[in-house]
Design goal:
297 residues; alpha+beta; five-stranded antiparallel beta sheet; two-stranded antiparallel sheet; 8 helices; 21% strand; globular; signal; DUF4214 domain-containing protein
Amino acid sequence: MKAKLLFFCLVLFAAGTQMAFSQWIHRNAGEGIIVKYGVQLNVANRDTAMVISLKIKDDVLRKTIDYGSISLTPSNVKDTVALNAMLKDKYRTLFRANGRTPVLRHSDFVETMALSIHDTTDAKFQRSYVYQGLLMFSSLLKGARRDVANTGSVNYRVMETFPVVVSGFVCEQDVVINAAEFKAYLRERQPDDPTNGGIQHYLNALEYLNGNMTMSQIRVQLNNYFMTSRWPQGGECGCCGNYSGNCYYWNAGCLAHDMACQRCQHSWCFSGCKPTSCSGNTIAWYWFAVKVITPYP
């Protein structure tokens, strides 16, 4: 049976405060799973906070796990250092309370939920914090996949493309690219895309590498490469923005997003990406300004 999503929204008003609450419900009857993702928007005296929460009822395990809540504010939502620490701490807490097994099992269902919403909503909604919050929980639970030593200690590094509004929330450790296949794809594409400087950057940086690599590993190779090579230009892949002349804000995260999302296969790739040259692309900088909870259709 296909998974189903339900939505409801409640808006309350009190003296000097406003609160809006919505909940998405993902059901997978075949697996005995009900995922409840809640979003509460609090506005008081011009201070805004969005509190996201996640609970999963699992009939197979005969238990409901409360994955807690995360409070997002203007001061912490773009702070990748704080987000990295928060995810690491929350995973440690979940591990101590539940062990690795249920978190590992539930990571698949949260990812499926995120992909289902991604495939049925428009680009503006995908850029809202409402959807990004679900991706945060997805990244949190995916930590169990890396906890192969079963210690409860997992590192998280949020992709640098998230705070500069280039991609959805994702951690470098969860972006896995096969170097050999990726280079073959780039070489095939290069003759038809001669102005895309990002292609050659990747080919040079990964010249002697052929296995599966996480973005954390690729970032090290790219940074080493650019220590001895010409810096990219504003219109090339890897530049966080699009303008003429030298690129004033380039990083490996933006380069990974530009190339990895060319086929738009991930939940953190926004709508509108196409298999075309990175040169000339425009980037919407407004999506963080979404201030209301947009109902899921």
